[in-house]
Amino acid sequence: DACLVITGDALQICLSFYEKDLMESIIESPSVVVCRCSPTQKATVTDLLKKYRNKKIRVCAIGDGGNDVSMIQSAHVGIGIVGKEGKQASLAADFSINQFSYLTRLLFIHGRDSYKRTASLSQFIIHRGLLFSVMQTIFCSVFYFATTPIFPAYLVVGYITIFTMLPIFSLVLDKDVPADIALLYPELYKELAKGRSLSLKTFSLWVLISVYQGSAIMYGAFVLFDDDFIHIVSITFTALILTELLMVALTIRTWHILMVIGEFLSFTCYILSIVIFRNYFDIRFLESWSFIWRVVTITVISCLPLYILKYVQTQFKPPIHEKLKQYSTLK
What we know:
Blueprint (H helix, E strand, L loop, with lengths): L3 E4 H10 L1 H10 L3 E4 L3 H14 L7 E4 L5 H6 L2 E5 L6 H5 L2 E3 L5 H40 L10 H9 L3 H5 L9 H6 L2 H6 L7 H25 L7 H20 L5 H20 L6 H5 L1 H28 L3 H11 L1
Parallel strand pairs: 1-2, 3-4, 4-5
Helix pairs in contact: 1-2, 6-11, 6-12, 11-12, 11-15, 12-13, 12-15
């Protein structure tokens, strides 16, 4: 628990002859103070930290002057403070702040929310594409693996750009806890250091979800619509859109007005496409009660088990942000 204090001249000698021993001492020390070091030395120490530390560790450099530019650019993340020395550090950094005290909000609020939002967004994009691929694979396997697309080209483009884009990208507005709770309980930020929000485990879980839902939609359509197999496109695509919109709704932790608008506009655009492209859809068949209840059944089969599992997990093993939200509500 001793702090390491070293001057710039001594640092240069250690870097020249005892680089490994010096870095081991720096890594083991809770705090290191280097007095009167040059800009080159700052950048060198930053590069050595990236070299000797674990690959999962990220190095952040914070500076407020032109002599900190090389250090800021060498780090994984550079933060520049606009100060009396000018804006050189601020312009060279990844993030710019006006006061050092703003670093707390940058890390514990904006940094934490950004990480969790990026994790949710990237995994949902994977889920969206993989879900479509599973359905296409099953469809081809039914026809002896013939290279026949299940959906017309315009539906594929619409699925990626119009029918699901707004709800999925609205996840960048999602947050699990308010800002005041995130500042009050820093263990929420410590939890992210374990990397559980975006890992091989979560990726594998979303792959299994995509395989299950794609199989449920396709085989559900084969079973329930055996007599109306000619309408396989409208059946499966409608269930696909509803499944994706419901999965976004089940994932959102805190609703935002733009999320509601995104869900509504996406489904409205799909309804309008049915009216416009009548060559691909049979309006009379889509208006029938037989079509509606069967599509709803397929969608429920693909989404309800996942909702039940999530509910059970929340009740018996709630995440830490759920515990803190309930605790803050009781207070």
